[in-house]
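Write out this protein's structure.
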Amino acid sequence: MTLHLQPVRVATGSEDGDGQLVFADGFLVAVLVQLSGQHGAFAGMWFLEAGFGLTAVMSAPLFLDLDAAQDWIGRHLSMKRGSG
């Protein structure tokens, strides 16, 4: 499985933010948003704004950086695919 990120601006409601569309093997699987300064100690971290298909989860952790987010997405997709 190959993950590909594409930068995007996301209208989050509180303020527009930097985001990344995440594709796995050409399919959109997630939208990540970088938390702004209004999130205090969490500013700069990445949040799973939306997951699709196998990444549609009720609760995902905050990620320190994009590498951590990609690792989580890759593990999650692999785990789900392996169990089905």
